[in-house]
Each structure stands twice: as structure tokens, then as C-alpha cells.
Specification:
By secondary structure, the protein is an all-alpha fold. 85% of the residues lie in helices and 0% in strands.
């Protein structure tokens, strides 16, 4: 490698060019990250909308445990009524 004298101005230009390159790369990466987050936000919004729609449809649904308890109560009442007739 040649030993070349570099002036302060040349060194300053080299450093500036290096920082400019880093700055451009950072800006490009930042744009990519922003675009990706925008896509994620859009997908999350769709998921939340779908979840709200599902919850709305399930508002009046009876849970299996409640239905099983009701079946037991009806069975008990039916047995009591049939014993009373016999």
C-alpha cells in the first residue's frame, strides 16, 4: 500500500461520504421497516374486525356446560313428575 499524504479536507470529504452512505442505508432500512409495520397494522386491523364479528355472533350462544346443567334440571323435573303420577 502506498503511503499517501491526505489533507484534512480530503479526510473530511471521505468521512462525510462515509456518513452519507450510512445515512442513505439507514433511511432505506427505515422505510422498509415502516412499510412492514404498515402491513402488520393492516393485518392486525383485519384480525380485530374478524374477532369482533365472531364475538357478536357468539353473544347469544349457550355454553355446553350451561346446556348440560339445564338437561340435568329437566331430567330431575321429569323424574319428579313421573313419580307423582305413578
Amino acid at each position: 500500500m502506498d503511503n499517501k499524504d491526505i489533507t484534512i479536507n480530503e479526510l473530511a470529504v471521505m468521512v462525510k461520504n462515509g456518513f452519507d452512505g450510512v445515512h442513505e442505508t439507514f433511511n432505506e432500512r427505515s422505510k422498509q421497516v415502516d412499510e412492514r409495520f404498515d402491513r402488520v397494522d393492516t393485518r392486525m386491523d383485519k384480525l380485530e374486525d374478524n374477532q369482533r364479528a365472531i364475538l357478536t355472533r357468539l353473544e347469544d350462544v349457550v355454553y355446553k356446560t350451561e346446556l348440560d346443567q339445564l338437561k340435568e334440571r329437566v331430567k330431575t323435573i321429569e323424574e319428579a313428575i313421573s313419580l307423582g303420577k305413578g
